[in-house]
Amino acid sequence: MTEKKVMLTEDGYNKLVEKLDYLKSVRRIEVAERLKAAIALGDLSENSEYDDAKNEQAFLEGEIQELETKIRNSDIIKAGDGKSVTMGSRVKVKDLEFDEEETFLIVGSTEADPDEGKISNESPLGMALLGQKINRVIKVNAPAGIIQYKIIDIKK
């Protein structure tokens, strides 16, 4: 089975590596200490502290494994030349209905965070923006209806 490539910006890749390092070097030790303390309490059959610590350990190991897989299968995306929208582009658009400007960074789904202006290349807006040029008007089919945006600027 071939694992799916994970599209990441360089910053997103570095954040995943940093989180993995933290989980392995700090959280593993904390959970191991908690497990050791729970074992010291005695009878494991009725020890909820022990059960909680084991569950936390299993969750942590799953998270570590997931991060390692994402990192191993990552493709670092490089922004294009700024002439058209690509993964890694920072795009300034104008909502034509509300006359409001917004800026979005086009990223892979792993990094998407709309609150930070990072939208996935797989989202309706991300897909509509990809390949477009400055001054183009795009239509996005959103839950609220069709939204029209004009592309004002594209940066690497």
Protein structure class = alpha/beta
Per DSSP, the total helix count is 3
What's the count of strands?
A: 7
**Average pLDDT figure:** 90
Q: How would you describe the oligomerization state of the chains in this entry?
A: single chain
What does the overall shape look like?
A: elongated
| Share in β-strands | 25-35%
The radius of gyration is 22 Å
The largest sheet has its strands arranged as 5-4-3-7-6
The proportion of residues forming helix, as a percent range, comes to: 25-40%
Lay out the secondary structure.
Blueprint: E1 6-8, H1 10-40, H2 48-72, E2 74-76, E3 90-95, E4 100-107, E5 118-120, H3 124-129, E6 137-142, E7 145-155
Parallel strand pairs: 1-2, 4-5
Antiparallel strand pairs: 3-4, 3-7, 6-7
Helix pairs in contact: 1-2
Question: How would you describe the overall organization of this protein?
Answer:
By secondary structure, the protein is α/β, with parallel strands linked by helices. The mean pLDDT is 90. The strands form two sheets. Strands 5-4-3-7-6 form a five-stranded mixed sheet. A two-stranded parallel sheet has the order 1-2. The chain contains three helices and seven strands; from the N terminus they run βααββββαββ. Residues 83-155 form the Transcription elongation factor GreA/GreB C-terminal domain. This is Transcription elongation factor GreA.
Features of this protein?
156 residues, alpha/beta, 26% strand, Tscrpt_elong_fac_GreA/B_C, transcription, DNA-binding, transcription regulation, Transcription elongation factor GreA
